[in-house]
Amino acid sequence: MSITPLENRVLVKPDKETEEMVGGIYRPQTVEKNVVKGTVVSVGPGKLLATGAGLEMTQPLLAEGDVVIVRRGAGLDVDGLLLLEEFEVLAKVD
To answer: Which residues pair with 71 in a beta bridge?
Structure first.
């Protein structure tokens, strides 16, 4: 199945979360983190804005391959990928 984001939406593949062993018990990193890091898989064309000069498209701030940080629980889970609006992305990792 091919997913193409519309408007100012992005599709992000979350990184695999690792677990660590503490006192003989496995503790997932999700216990301590409120954010998810992932890679942008696909980007929509931008949002259509009505301006005084007519209709204009905004330019996406992200590109395919960008590594980003998003709040845990943001967006929609679609086949293991996160479908987010651009404003839900907290930061881009360089």
So the answer is: 35
